[in-house]
Amino acid sequence: MASGLWIxxxxxxxxxxxxxxxxxxxxxxxxxxxxxxxxxxxxxxGLDARRDTYVALNTACRQYLAALTDQMxxxxxxxxxxxLDRRLTEARDAHRDCYAEAQLRVxxxxxxxxxxxxxxxxxxxxxxxxxDRGDVxxxxxxxxxxxxxxxxxxQVRLLRQQxxxxxGVVNSGEGx
Length: 176
Hints:
Number of helices: 4
Order of helices and strands: HHHH
Shape: rod-shaped
Helix content: over 70%
Radius of gyration: 31 Å
Strand content: under 5%
Number of strands: 0
C-alpha cells in the first residue's frame, strides 16, 4: 500500500512539474516573441527615420541646385534680384541642416556621396558669389558654373539612386 501511495505521489508531482515546465516554456516563448517584435519595431522606425532623412536631403539638394541655377541665369542676364539672393540663402541653409542630420543617420556609402554633393554645391555657390561680387579667381566663369551645375544634377541623381537602393526601393528606370 505504501508503494501505491508513493506511486500516486510521484504521479501528482510529475503532473504538477509538467504543468510548471509547460508554463515556463510558454512564458519564455512569449518573452522571445516580444523581444523580436520590439526589434522589428525598432528596425522599422530606423528605416522610417532614414527614409524621412533621405526625402528631406533629396528635396534640399534639388532646391539648392535650382536656386543656384536661377542665380546663374540672373547673372547671365545681369538682372540681380534680392528675392533670388534670399531664395539661394534659404535653400543653402535648408540643405546645410538636412546634410547635418544625414551625417548622423545615414550609412557611410550614402554619406560619402552626400558629402561629395555637399562639397560640389558649396564650390559652385562660392564661384557664383565671387562672380556676383566681381571678386573673380582664375577659373571662375559663368561657363564653369554652368558645367558645375550640369555635373551636380548628375551627382544628385546618383545620390538619389544610392538612397533608394539603401531603402530597398526597386529601380524602376527613374528619370530626373
